[in-house]
């Protein structure tokens, strides 16, 4: 079977709930890919295999992310959701932007960076080149945009006049950053709830101790 046929077969197995079989097929494919010079799509295979493995260890297996990666590896045009998911994995695995790292950006810098990557490029051009609204500006004169880039300029990968592919890439980064910020806020919510519960429990213990101290003996 060709790589594409194996991937499609793995897709069918995973969609039918046979994630173990799909994982084994992918594992064999990864090993074959590693023997190629250069390796052929091994990154995509390994990402998909990892996601399927994670789904097997969860209480509610969900191979949707893995399926999107597999379809991309099979040569299908990746959806926006698949591209964003893969970029988020890359940010964590390649860039090292872990949960601990993201949690330190507690002034919503990640969300601001997402805004900057998502904003249409013409607004950036307008901000950079049009001091006063002019009829010959491509940007509508009633729109202003103050770039809120939160970090040092060296981390800003945007192009002033991006190609269509670069524009798509910026939007993918924006989506991945939004996902990172959602995860950060969820972790923060859990942390605050736990701290609130601990304070409540501590107060309950103190109140109980005070009650004992007030007993007449």
Care to describe what's here?
The protein folds into 2 domains: 3-78, no CATH class; 99-213, no CATH class. It is mainly alpha-helical and 217 residues long. The radius of gyration is 25 Å and the shape is flat. It is built from 9 helices and no strands. The protein starts with a helix and ends with a helix. Helix 4 (64-73) crosses helix 5 (80-93) and helix 5 (80-93) packs across helix 9 (164-213). Helices cover 65% and strands 0% of the residues. Mean pLDDT is 75; it is low at 128-134. The protein has helices at 3-15, 19-34, 42-56, 64-73, 80-93, 99-103, 109-118, 121-129, 164-213.
Tags for this model:
217 residues, mainly alpha, 2 domains, 9 helices, 0% strand
